[in-house]
Every structure is written in C-alpha cells, then in structure tokens.
Amino acid sequence: AERFISDEPRLYEPRERPWYQAGASASAHTWTAVYIDFRTHELVATRARKVLSPQGQTQGVVATDVSLRGLNDFVAALDISAHGFAFIVEPGGDLIAASSGANVARGADGNMTRLKASASTHPMVPLAHAEVLRALADKQTTLPQTRSLVGADGQAVYVAFNRLKDEAGLDWMVVVGVPE
User: Fold this and answer.
1) CB 99 within 8 A of CB 87
2) Looking at residue 153, what is its pLDDT?
3) What is the pLDDT, as a whole number, of residue 86?
4) pTM, two decimal places
5) How far apart are CA 63 and CA 60, in angstroms?
6) Is 59 within 8 Å of 24 (Cβ atoms)?
7) pLDDT-based confidence at 104, cuts 50/70/90?
8) Which helix (H) or strand (E) holds 121?
9) Which end of the chain offers a freer environment for a tag, N or C, measured as fewer CB atoms within 10 Å?
10) Cis geometry, peptide bond prior to residue 144 (ω within 30 degrees of 0)
C-alpha cells in the first residue's frame, strides 16, 4: 500500500547537484567528489555518466549514490589498538571516514560541513595527515609507505598509508597508525 513518507521543504533541482554536473561534463563514468547528501546529511559519493540521445546530445545523467556511512561505521569499528587510529581522506584533506571522531559537523550557520583531517579531534590524525602530505610532496615517493612519528606523549607511532584509485576518478588515501 502506498503511504506518504515525507515532504521536502527545499526545492530539489537535480541539474544543480554535484552528481549531475559531474556526470554531464565527463566523457565516461565518473565519481563525484564526496558530498553531503541533500536529504540525509551524510557523506555520499556518486558514480555517474551522461545519457546521450541517438544524435549524441546529452539527455540526462544516470547515477548511483554510494552512502559512505557504512564505510565510516566500518573504520570506526576497527579494533586496531587502544590508541591506534585509521582514517580515509580525499586529496584536499576532507575526511571520508575516521576511527575516532566525526567526518561531518553542523556549522554555525546550521548547515552540515565536511571536516578536515587537520581538524580531527584525535591528536594523531592531524600529525599523520601532515606526514602523508610531506611524503606525497616528494614526487619520488612510491606507495604504500610507512613512517614513524612521535605522538604528543613522546611515544613512537607507526603510520602506514596507501592510495586507493580507480579508472573513474576515485582518489582516496587510506591511513592507519599504531603506537609502538
């Protein structure tokens, strides 16, 4: 039986959404940048591609949303160690998932916003992310990579990281750290 679920108070114009714009401008399948979903306010990545008419003109975009909540829940549930951590981050520093702390927050204006690895509440995440950036700045760096850092308590922390990429434009860095 049909039933009313909800009424959207804001105008939803699909052609203004990141997934539509990414799909319409790409020549093949593409991933959007991770964004905050219009309705759920959770992180989403969308695989999209344009649909062409028989004459080769863009008729629209077909897309599949992939909620990243399950990924964040998985990373948060990892049993690394008492003071270990893991996170997944985009090249611009925005968190996708983290074993401790959130990946989105409500801003002062009431809107949801992405959190940066550099602003993580876990003391080692900003340090590890800065080390990843230093390593990637050296164009000779090959991945995966391991590094040793010193935490705020003076204890050695071992960090491993690797890039996760695919042919449709996915580009994430996976980072795991454990104390000595």
Assistant:
1) yes
2) 83
3) 96
4) 0.81
5) 10
6) no
7) confident
8) none
9) N
10) yes
Q: Which residues contact 163 (CB under 8 A, 6 or more apart)?
A: 143, 171, 172, 173, 174
Question: Distance (Å, rounded) from C-alpha 116 to C-alpha 104?
Answer: 9
Residue 38 in this model has a pLDDT that exceeds 90: no
Q: If you count them, how many residues does the chain have?
A: 180
97-105 contact pairs (CB < 8 A, 24+): 97/68, 97/71, 97/72, 98/72, 98/122, 98/125, 99/75, 100/76, 100/125, 101/125, 103/43, 103/68, 103/72, 104/36, 104/41, 104/42, 104/43
What is the structure's pLDDT at 177? 95
Q: Write the DSSP assignment of 73-90 as a string of letters.
A: HHHHH----TT-EEEEE-
Instruction: Report in angstroms the alpha-carbon separations of 48 from 25, 27, 90, 169.
Output: 10, 11, 19, 11
Structure tokens of 65? 């949303």
Could you tell me the maximum CA-CA distance found in the chain, to the nearest angstrom? 65
